[in-house]
Amino acid sequence: MYPKAIFLDLDDTIIAFDHGVDVDGCWRLACGNELPYDEETLTGIIERIKGKAKWYWSDPERHRIGRMDLAKTRAGFIAEALQEAGHGGPAAAESAAAVAERISAAFTDARDKAITMIPGALETIHHLRERGFKLALITNGSASGQRSKIDRFGLAPLFDLILIEGEFGTGKPEQAVYLHAMQELNVKAEEAWMVGDNFDWEIVAPQAVAMKGVWVNPKRLAPTGGITPFRTIETLSELRGLLDELAN
């Protein structure tokens, strides 16, 4: 069925948060200013931090808790990495935890500055509004962190509903999120599409409540769990062509 409402994800669907951001460069900038080591040692510590980060974010429950305060969460696994690398300890001039807090703050600042709109995304949102679709922005994360990105890029006036995990009290993939958005926009599940890059949050969970899931998949990853997206696109701008195709 042709949609009446389209729900859009924010990070890596509308704005480049991981994809298209030089995350390694952000880590090197943040660590290089705080750690007085040679290049080889510094690289080893950065790789250790990245390994801790990958482990931490791999678990859905840790992810849910940690994304509510990214700076604090990062400081925690940075401190663990520094301690394992031998930085800090009772005899150190400064604890690993104190250095980790500054590295986390510097990384957050560098990464925030690197965030940009994905090419064609803003034009696509304007196009969807002009065509009369009801639009919801549904994003996980803290209220302050996600609001700052929404405000920075002037996205709020473009949506009929903005649902942020830190404001609503729960986030994707909880069914309550999608059901609430449908209720607020007065649409049925079969009249709504969820569009985004996270397979579990934007495909598996929405399709479990009878919505259509459109997967933004620039890396051309394979679907998992025997679930097939309604459609797959590489960038949000391709949504315009998909809608035209289905309208004809």
From TrEMBL:
Keywords: Hydrolase, Magnesium. It comes from the Bacteria. Its cofactor is Mg(2+). GO terms for biological process: riboflavin biosynthetic process. Gene3D superfamilies: HAD superfamily/HAD-like, Haloacid dehalogenase hydrolase-like domain. InterPro entries: HAD-like_hydrolase, HAD-like_sf, HAD-SF_hydro_IA, HAD_sf. GO terms for molecular function: hydrolase activity. PANTHER family: 5-AMINO-6-(5-PHOSPHO-D-RIBITYLAMINO)URACIL PHOSPHATASE YIGB (PTHR46470:SF4), N-ACYLNEURAMINATE-9-PHOSPHATASE (PTHR46470). This is HAD family hydrolase.
